C-alpha cells in the first residue's frame, strides 16, 4: 500500500439513511425473512462477533437464527471449531470464522500483539517482577508453549501454579472499583493469543460466563495458521467489513479496525472501494460489485445483546441511533448495552426480571406505535423462551438497563 493515494473521487450515487437501514436488516440477518441457519453463517454475516462478554456470542447468534441453541453455539466453538475466539481489532476479543484467521493475525491482531508485548514487559519492570521486562516475558512465553505442547487445555490459574516463570503480580488503580492486585499470567496468555500461538479452548464455566482454558492454536486446529502480510490482511478485513457494514465512512472503518487513518484509507484503495454520498454530507464507501440500490424491507424488530456487532459496527451512528439516546444506551467509554431495534433504529434496551422473563425498556421519547410494541414484545417472548430461565449478567450495563435517570 502507498500512503499518497488520490483524492476522494466523486460519489457514484447517494445512499440515504433509509437504504442504509434496509441493508443492515438484510446483511446482518436481523430481519426475520433473512435470518441464517447456524453459528458460522451468523458470524460470517457480521464478519466477526464481539466476545468481550461471553454471553454476547450466543445471544448474537440467536438474534440472527431460528434454530440453534446455546449448546449448538458451543459445539461450533469447541467441537467443530469452525469459529474461534481471537483478540483483534481495538484489542477486543472477537469470534471469527476460521478462514478469516490468517488475515486477522497478520494485521489487526499483530498490531495488538506488539502493543501487548510492550505493555506487559513494562509492567514487569515497573512492579519489580524483573529488571529486564522483555527477557522475563520471553521466558514466560516459552515456558507456556513448552507446557502446553501436546497437552490438554489449561486455565490461567493452572498454568501459573505449574510454571514459576509466570510468577508476578501488579498493583494498580487502587482508587478505582476495578483496581487492585492482579497476576501477570493472564496478560502473558493474552499476548500469546494475540500472536496466534495460543487460542482459547473449551470454556470451563457456563456459556454465559468467561472461564477460558488455553491451548496451542496448532493443536486446537490441527494445523499451523500462516498470517497474511499486514497490507493483505487489512484488505481482507476491509472487504468483509464493507460487505457487512457498507456504506461506511473512512472514520467508521478506522475506528472499527483500530488502525491508523492511513492504513484504513490504503485498504479501501486496495479493495477498489467506490465512494457514495450519505445523508448529512459524509462520504461512504461500498465494494465495486455492491453498488445496486437495496429495496425497503417490511418493518422488523430485534433484541440484541451488550456489545452486539451491529450496535458496535460504526463510529458514526446517527442513521440508526438518536444522538439524544446515546447516554442512555452506551457507557462513558462507548460500550453499548442491550438494545431494542424497531425498523432499523435503536429504540430502547431489554432487561430480565427475577424469573428471567425479558421485557423491553423504551428510550425516553422513543416513538413507538402499537405495531412496534407488539412486535418487540413478541421478540421478548422469543428470547425468554430461548433463554429458558437463564439470567444474563453484564459487565457493560447502560443507564437504561440499570434504570438510571439522566437529564
Q: Descriptors for this entry?
A:
alpha+beta, 2 domains, 4-stranded antiparallel β-sheet, 16 helices, about 40% helix
Overall SS class: alpha+beta
Mean pLDDT: 94
Rg from Cα: 22 Å
Taking the sheet with the most strands, its summary is: 4 strands, antiparallel
- Beta-strand residue percentage: 15-25%
What sequence of helices (H) and strands (E) makes up the elements?
Answer: EHHEHHEEHHHHEEHEEHHHHEEEHEEEHH
Q: Explain this structure to me?
A:
The protein is an alpha+beta fold and 407 residues long. 40% of the residues lie in helices and 15% in strands. The protein is built from 16 helices and 14 strands. It has helices at 17-27, 39-45, 54-64, 70-80, 101-106, 108-126, 133-148, 156-162, 185-194, 217-221, 230-245, 250-257, 261-270, 326-329, 370-387, 399-402, and strands at residues 14-15, 49-50, 83-87, 93-97, 169-172, 180-183, 198-203, 212-216, 274-278, 283-286, 301-304, 339-342, 345-352, 358-362. A four-stranded antiparallel beta sheet has the order 11-12-13-14. A hairpin with a 5-residue loop joins strand 3 and strand 4 (93-97).
Question: What's this entry about, in short?
Answer:
The protein is of the alpha+beta class and 407 residues long.
Helix and strand arrangement:
Blueprint: E1 14-15, H1 17-27, H2 39-45, E2 49-50, H3 54-64, H4 70-80, E3 83-87, E4 93-97, H5 101-106, H6 108-126, H7 133-148, H8 156-162, E5 169-172, E6 180-183, H9 185-194, E7 198-203, E8 212-216, H10 217-221, H11 230-245, H12 250-257, H13 261-270, E9 274-278, E10 283-286, E11 301-304, H14 326-329, E12 339-342, E13 345-352, E14 358-362, H15 370-387, H16 399-402
Parallel strand pairs: 1-9
Antiparallel strand pairs: 2-4, 3-4, 5-6, 7-8, 9-10, 11-12, 12-13, 13-14
Helix pairs in contact: 6-7, 6-9, 7-9, 11-13, 12-13
